[in-house]
Structures are given as C-alpha cells and as structure tokens.
Amino acid sequence: MARDTARDGSSRRARRAAGLIQLPWRRLHNPYAPMQVVSADQVEALHEASLRILEELGIEFLLPEAVAMWRQAGATVAADGVRVRLDRALVLDLVAKAPPSFTLHARNPARDVVIGDGHLVFACVASAPNASDLDGGRRPGNWQDFENLVKLGQALNTVHCFGGYPVEPIDLPAPTRHLDCIRAFITLSDKVFRPYALGGGRIRDAIEMARIARGASEEQLQREPSLFTNININSPLRVDGPMLQGVLEMARFNQPVSVTPFTLAGAMSPATIAGALAQQNAEALAGIAFCQLARPGLPVVYGGFTSNVDMKTGAPAFGTPEYARAAMAGGQLARRYNLPYRSSNANAANAVDAQAAYESQTSLWSAALGGANLMLHAAGWMEGGLVASFEKMVLDAELLQSLSEFLQPIAVNEDTLGIDAMREVGPGGHFFGAAHTLQRYETAFYQPLVSDWRNFETWREAGAPDAASHANRIWKQLLADYQPPPLDAAVLEELDTYVAKRKEEGGVGSA
Amino acid sequence: MARDTARDGSSRRARRAAGLIQLPWRRLHNPYAPMQVVSADQVEALHEASLRILEELGIEFLLPEAVAMWRQAGATVAADGVRVRLDRALVLDLVAKAPPSFTLHARNPARDVVIGDGHLVFACVASAPNASDLDGGRRPGNWQDFENLVKLGQALNTVHCFGGYPVEPIDLPAPTRHLDCIRAFITLSDKVFRPYALGGGRIRDAIEMARIARGASEEQLQREPSLFTNININSPLRVDGPMLQGVLEMARFNQPVSVTPFTLAGAMSPATIAGALAQQNAEALAGIAFCQLARPGLPVVYGGFTSNVDMKTGAPAFGTPEYARAAMAGGQLARRYNLPYRSSNANAANAVDAQAAYESQTSLWSAALGGANLMLHAAGWMEGGLVASFEKMVLDAELLQSLSEFLQPIAVNEDTLGIDAMREVGPGGHFFGAAHTLQRYETAFYQPLVSDWRNFETWREAGAPDAASHANRIWKQLLADYQPPPLDAAVLEELDTYVAKRKEEGGVGSA
After folding, report:
1. Does an H or E element contain A355, and which?
2. Which residues of chain A neighbour B49 with C-beta distances below 8 Å?
3. B267–A403 CB contact, under 8 Å
C-alpha cells in the first residue's frame, strides 16, 4: 500500500527540465495483459503457415557466407545459390536459443533499458531522408538537423534511446558519415543508440566507439550489450548482403539485432492481414534463426512492421485499422516464441495535424496494448518515414508521456478511495479545498506538454494557437535550454582520436 | 470459414453515399476481451467502498416523491428530508433487477441498435451550447445548426443514433423547443434519438412522438423501447428533481435510462482515480437502483464520465491518461453488475487540431477497448462539451470508422493466408499484380474519409490541405447531398397535428 501511494505521488512528480514540465525519465513496464486480436488457434495457423513458407518456398540470403552457414546447418540450398529452404525443426531449434529479454547498457547507467520482459522502450525517429519544421519547411537531411534532433531526443525524457539516425545527414561524406553520427550520439546524448547494419565496417566502428564511451573492455561489452541494430527483410522473402554482414559483425560482439520484415500488405505481402502476418512471421523467424546460427543466444527482437498500401495509389498507409490489428497480432506471435517484440509509432501524414495525431495514436496504442517492448520511430516520424519533424517530435512526446501514465497502475487503498474527503465535502460540495485534494495538489494528475486547456476566450485572445504551434515553441525552448550530458575528458579524447584515425583511413571506403 | 471470408469481403465493402466513400451503416460487436486496468480484488475494493458511501454518507434525491419511494422501500431518510442512506442489500437487490442488454427500436427497423451484450453503439454529440465550423466560427447554438447537425448525423453511416440535441437551439422558445427538436429527429433522420429528462412533460411528448413515428401502440412501445435518456448525477451525491421526474416518466413507459455520475476528479470527486471511481460507482448504483424502484426490470445503462480537472486552473480535462484508465475500470465495474456501459468520446481542444485528435482517440479507444457499449458524444464534441463542431464531426467519423474496422476479426484461412500468392510472386517480387491481390482489390483495406495519403509534392501542389480543411469540405458535401429518409405522409401528418396541439397548449409551460 505504501508503494501504491508512492506511485500516486512522488514517482509521478513532474520535473521541470529545460523550463518545461516533463515527466521524469523512467523505465516503463506494462502492467496490463496484452490485447489479443487473434485466437490461440489462429496464432497456431499463422505459425504453421509461416513454417510452410520457409519449407516450401524458402527465403533468399544474398550473402555467400550466410548461405554457406545455412548449408552447413543442414538447410537445402537451391541451384541459384541464394534461396534456402528451412526445415521447421532447424528454424525452431535455432529460434529457441534466443533470450526472452536483455538489457541495453548506455554510457550513463541511469539510461540503461530493458528489452522484453514486459518493458516498453521508446526510440526516437530514425532513417528519415528529410527533416521538417514549421519555420524552415521540408528539406533534405543535413548535419545541423541531425545534431538538433539528437539534442531534442536527449532533452525529451520520454525518449529512451535512439533507433537510428533521426535524419540522414547527406551533406556529410558517406564513407565517414557514421563516425560523425555515432560521435554525436555519444557526445550530445547519454542514451543508447543504434548503428546501421550496412556492411560490417560501420558496425565495427560503432561497437568500438560504444566501448570507448562506456570505458569498457571488449569482454564487458560482450557481457553487457550497449547498442542494437535492426535489419529489415527485403520482403518478400529476401535478405540483402550488407545487412547480413552487419548481423555477423553484431553477433561477433554479442550485440542485439532486431529483425523486421517489411510486409506492406498488397505490395510486399498478400493483400490480407493474415497473409501479411504469415509472411512476416516466416521472414522474422528466418532472420532470427540466422542470428542464432551466427551466435547461439544472441539477443534478438522480433520486429513487426505490417501495414497496408492504399490500393488506389500504392501509397503506404500507417495507423490504419489493419495496422492496429497486425501490431497486436504481431505481439501474440512474438510471445509465441518468447521473444521481445518491436513495433513502431507510424503515420502517413504530411502535416502535424489531426491526421498525424490519430494515425500515430492508433499505431502507438495498438502496439503498446498489444505488448510491444521496443517502439521504434516513437517520436518525430512523419510521411511514412520520409520526414523527421521537429514539431511531430514534441507532439509524440505528449503521446508517449500520456501512454506512459496510462501504464501506471491505479492505486486503490483507503487513502486514495477518499471516503473521508467525500464525508467532509458532502452532497453538492466541491473538492477543490478538501484536505485530501490539497495533499496531492501538485502531483494528482498528468500535466500535458502540448495540450492547451485554457477556455476558448482566453485561448483566442492568446492568438488561438494550435497544437503544432505549441510544439514549435516547445522544441525551440528545449534546444535553447539544451545542455550536453557530462562526458569524461579522457573518454572524449580517446573517441576523437579513434574518429580521426578512422577518417584518415577513409572510413568504410566506397562501401 | 465461409463466414470469415465474407467478413474480409462483402461485409466490409465501402458504399458510395453522398458522393463520399463511407463504410456502410452496421451494428458493431466487440469481439475482443475487454482490457482490464484494475485487478478483480481492486474491483471488489471499489465496490465495497461505493456501498460504504451509500450506507454511511448517503445521497440526496431532490424530489419528495422519490424520497417517499425510498422510505417505502426501507431506506433511511435524514432529517433534511432529502438525504437517503441506502443499505447494500437494498441497492444490490434493486440493481440485480436490471436487464443486461436491450434493443432500441428506431422508426426504421434497419437502424435498431442493441445496448449491451458486447455491442458498441455510437451516439452523435449532444447538449453543446455552441456550434462551430471553420467558415462561420463559434456561435451560440441555433435552429439552423441544430438541423444541419442532425442531417450530418443522419448522413454519416458510422453514427448509430442521437445522444441528445447536437446543439441547443436557443433561438427557439424553451417551452416548445423540445417539440421542434424531436420533430426534427424524426423527420430529418430515421435513427434512435434521446430526449432530455428535464421534468416529465418533455419526456411524455417525446415518447408520444416516438410512438407516432413508429406507428406503434403504447403496448408495443413498452415492449420495444424506442428512445433513451441519460441523467447525470450532480456529483457529489445529489440527484436533482427534474431529472428524477424524467426518470419516473421514462419508467412509466419502460423506456431506457442511462445514469451517469459527473465525477471530475479534483472538483466533483476526490483527486484520485480510485476515489472518483468509488464515488462514480456509488452514484451510478444509487441512480440505477432508483430506476428499478420506479419500475423493476427497467432497461438501464451504467454511465461513466470520470475525468480530472487541471489542478492549476480547475479547467476540466479529457482524453487524459486518468480518463483512459477510469474509462476502462468503469467497464469492469459495469460488468461487475452485468449492466451495459456508457462512456464518451471526450476532449478539451479548442481547435480541430492534433490535440482534438489525440485526446479524442485516447477517450474513444480506451472506452471501446474497455468494453463500452454506448459511446455518447462519439462525433462532434469539442471544448469539453461547450461546442458541437462540424469539422470535428467528420474527423470523429473517421476515428469511429477506423475503430469499427479494428473491431472486425481477422480472417485466418487458406485463402487469406495467401501462400500460393507468395509462391507466384516469389522472393523480391511485388504483389500488386498477383491474382490474390486483384481478387480483393477494392475491398482489401479500410478507405479513409479524411486521411490524405498523397505524397508530399502532390499534396503541396493541392494547397497542402490539413485534416480540418478536408473535414470542412466533407461536411459541406454531405449536407449538399443530404436526402431526408422516407417518412409516411400519414405519420408526418399525425406528428404535425400533435406538435401543433402541444404548441397551442404552450408546450411544457414555464418549466
């Protein structure tokens, strides 16, 4: 009961950070039973279908080394040398080697996050080719936007980690870009980050830089994974070479890999939720099995990204009712294999308007209520991933904060029931002045970041600001107040020495 | 399996109505287990607390006739003659007499709705003092807006019924206003509507007009309830006289009553979710017990409206994480008594912006996933109920349609799994041209009403319309294309004769 009371009080206390009231940084655990949108029988039917797909159709691995590993493991390799057909026993034995959860260690231990085991982790927008804000409009990704978005991701307490480059800084040369980006993650933030599995070289650099940032030995880093990557299956049924090289490098250092099929129903998978889910499951299992082939016990995440296209235009759609059900069913499938589950806060809006909000909210809540453990693109994603938006980042922070409060259990005890307060107030009275109310005045309820609850007249006199303009004001304030997290001077020096050396060597060359 | 296939196909076929693609009018059944945010023990603790409130504190009934009924039933009446203390056995015995579900019969039988039994019914915005649209701005409610909002509610297939006057037409004289409003519901729409329990007279008129509209006898109307009302408890712990008169009149004709405590935590109830829920439960049980006292077996609905105020300003807040958890816990409580559950699509936004969308979406999904059966204010509600917005009505229709599709079970069978399509397409291929895709081209996925999925360039060239401006265009088109539903000439004549007579009599007089 003492614990429950505390939940209603100090643990929910809003902290004033960067001049704005935010909820404090905290790990989230989902206390509710996950929603189930398919029956246990249907889960088994999807499971069965996905095993048939891998056995009968197979899947292409576009890396000779990977195909050789599969051959060695007993898989059937087609005459083309790329398509492997995977026996169900082989797949399931490998998948069973993956751990049900793991911890990602940030350079600041207070920012460690747990992936799996009922936890929910929010990762910042990743991989957008463009950035956008209300003042500057939409432009190709660049270094200044990259740095500012990392600063914002650091400043927003509700963002647990970085799920990739918030925007692609195309003004930096490709062979050394990753060195600048990883250095920025480490110096501008103290949260976990994600390098890209685009060949082994970038991964090697990122792992070494993460090791330096933590002041850890290689052995410690292997025991305590410090970064994660995500590979997308090139659906249908194909895994590209550079991603597989990245996986092999991650596996060498025991760093976690999320495997996410790109199953847009009607384009990259059948135009049915069931078909898209069966294919997603087949592809995810194949990718995860490969991870276990590379290193038994490698921490992995089952990724779901099933949505649909607009059948009239072929445009990808997100936050749809199809997306919502697929996100929940995806959780059921991941739990079928006792694996952590990754989903996304996705939407297809072009503006930070009502559509951006309702599509995102649909994606976010369905994934979270469906038991997602890792929410990629949780803050800032727009236009189906083509844009990282500064205003959307703040809007999403509001959605994430609200969701995180929804995940706090209700405290029911003599104190919170407040019968004495009702007695004091009496029929027709008012609770504003009651002792029970005054005791919890500051911490009773969630305080929003963006929502404007002023009455209409006051709001109109203030210029009738909409949510997007509030978000615009807030990100500017967050950036103006931004302070980099402390970093040991010796660590910074070692990091800079490494980056300089690798740049001299030409980075990853023309790769 | 045949049934499942049909679900993926014809039952989901979008119909072109009023020049726009809408989902067809259909009854909704929630196929998923309701979310539970409190444990069974916590439900019992809330139940216990609410019984203690009624036993120890009591509740005021501001109608002598009601108090006399309570006294007769064995309740303890305080010296003030208004506060009654209710023994738990008395309350629970009465509540147990209420049916778990009932059907509301519209004048068009195709528009009948089931309240309870896993069904979900969406009712149009009600009781707003103001109307608003992007062209005309915000203005006090008037007759033209009333008629237009009823037409919109009729035109939108996803709106099942009317939960009250969408806006209060204050340009009509109060004693006869209800006659014009009920006549408009009957002539402009064929859906179920709700009169107000503001004394017995208005209810009597509404019931008689509903009887005429259905061409039914009084006995038939009693067997087949045709309208419903809602009473709010004047929280804390007070029920006003005119509402009780309305209840007695509804009971006389066996017409359903929804009982909704107005428990804004921190103002009308304790500043805790548990306290607000305990009080909500006490007040709802007392109101429902009174309905059963008036007529054993009267169809009733357990209403929940628990939200919180902004503690800094006292402004009511909606769509908050507190609201979401209370909406779900409210469903658990209603099911504890085997009663249908009413909630609302509430928000506190001043504009049809991202805030309006995310607050509404939070309210709507939490209530629906928590097992709500009747969603009042489902379309058009803004500013915590101060405004009925034309654009919000269309925006909400999008949210409701999307939710209704989310509630369609996923069909998992050999056909939907589409393994042959995957075989045909092969690794790296595309499903657009696959036979499996072409077969379901038109009906595969939800088609949005408002969402704009064009790519950024095309969207910008089209003037970069946001969701609110799409909604503006859509309601205008719906009104331009509006056709009144057929009404028998004899029925209309009888209705008009009744209205004319009652107007001559002065309506409900000065009441």
Report:
1. helix A354-369
2. 417, 419
3. no
- Say how far apart CA A58 and CA A18 lie, in whole Å: 52
Instruction: Tally Cβ neighbours within 10 Å of residue B160.
Output: 30
Min distance B128 CA to chain A CA atoms (Å) = 14
What value, to the nearest 5°, has the Cα angle with vertex B249 and ends B243 and B250?
A: 90
Which residues in chain A are contacts of B273 at CB distance < 8 A? 410-411, 416
Q: Count the residues in chain A.
A: 511
Probe site for chain A from B431, B443, B455, B459 (most A CB atoms < 10 A): B431
Residue A88 CA: distances (Å) to CA of A28, A51, A85, A258, B379: 35, 6, 10, 21, 49
Interface touch A42/B410, C-beta < 8 Å: yes
Q: Which residues in chain B touch residue A52, judged by CB atoms under 8 angstroms apart?
A: 419
Which spans in A122-173 are helix H?
A: 143-155
Residue A17: pLDDT band (50, 70, 90) is: very low
Q: Which two tokens stand for residue A467?
A: 């949510």
Is pLDDT of A454 > 90?
yes
Q: Is A359 on the interface with B (CB under 8 A)?
A: yes
- Cβ <8 Å between B275 and A369: no
Six-digit token string for A74? 């007993």
Tokens of A188: 């501008």
A308/B444 Cβ within 8 A: yes
B53-56 long-range contacts, CB within 8 A, separation 24+: B53/A419, B53/A422, B53/B237, B53/B278, B53/B279, B53/B282, B54/B85, B54/B86, B54/B88, B54/B91, B54/B282, B54/B285, B54/B286, B55/B85, B55/B86, B55/B87, B55/B88, B56/A419, B56/A423, B56/B85
Is the C-alpha dihedral spanning B149, B151, B154, B156 positive or negative?
negative
Neighbours of A134 (CB within 10 A): 16
Give B139-176 pLDDT, tens digit per residue: 999 999 999 999 999 999 999 999 999 999 999 999 99
Q: Does A222 touch chain B (CB under 8 A)?
A: no
Distance CA A84, CA B423 (A): 14
Whether A338 and chain B come into contact, CB under 8 Å, resolves to no
